[in-house]
Amino acid sequence: MHCKDLESVCILGLGLLGGSLGMAVNRVWPNVRRLGYSHRAVTRQRALEAGTVDEVFEDLTKAVANADMVVLASPIGTFANIMQEMADHLRPGCIVTDVGSTKVLVTRWAKQYLKGAEFLGSHPMAGSEQRGVDFARADLFEDAACIITPTAKTQQSTCELLDEFWTALGMRVSRMSPAVHDKTLARISHLPHVLAAALVNMSDAEELLLCGKGFLDTTRIASGPAGVWHDILMTNADNTDRAIGKLIDELQRVRVVLQNDDGKKLTGMLERARVKRDDLVAKKLRRKELPA
Fold first, then answer.
1. Tens of pLDDT along 203-226?
2. Domain 181-261's class?
3. How is the beta sheet containing 95-98 ordered, strand by strand?
4. Rounded CA gap, 178 and 84, in Å?
5. How far apart are the first and last CA of the chain?
6. Selecting from 1.20.200.10, 3.40.50.720, 3.30.465.10, 3.40.50.300, what CATH number does the domain 3-176 have?
7. What does the pLDDT look like over 234-275, one tens digit per residue?
8. Roughly what angle, to the nearest 10 degrees, separates helices 263-286 and 237-259?
């Protein structure tokens, strides 16, 4: 199957990512029918009003019954139950993917429950601390990275289809195993959220009122929905724990430098971080991932 052969895509979960996906699909393939599911009536109504889907269902099994592709876009903690519920209602040849931020457990659940469907995890690195279909937009995925996570048993045709799908939506697609994905994301995504939350929680209310833009920029992601991040961290707990350990080691090195009044070494640490980050920003700008 190729994207030109898709007739319908079903999106399970119509928040920021799910709603934006529906809009993006319509912009690229206006003839593809977009089916949606949400357990909340208000979300179903808003999704239709915003044009994120063509048809929305209260019944999950009816939503997936005629889909060529099903995308799980609800919180990760719901995936196992959703997979069990829809497993016997997927049409032959249906491709199932997701937009979740962890992959090892999700892939394991898919292997356990989706016996008759082909599953390949996707992680579009797009979104914000905002949530809900009201913030959905068609350009959310443009110039962003997307990681697909095949296993040794994933069919090459499925990889090619999802590569084509996300690329057509404006993303740069790379591949890594579920285990490598979770280890990598623990350091560059999950740990930063833990750190942002910790920075906020360690300060009292009066101190926070005195903060400047630097603190607000550093802790922006702490405004992300607690339920979503609960699921992410709990499904990648071991990797996140190890990442926290590495951060503690790095902080301890800074602490020792300060205790030893070693200004030269402190400058070296700060300068190394500055150069490394500036190089990262320059590369992102060249790849048009950041506004100029």
1. 999 999 999 999 999 999 999 889
2. mainly alpha
3. 55-57, 33-37, 8-12, 69-72, 95-98, 118-119
4. 21
5. 38
6. 3.40.50.720
7. 999 999 999 999 999 999 999 999 999 999 999 999 999 999
8. 140
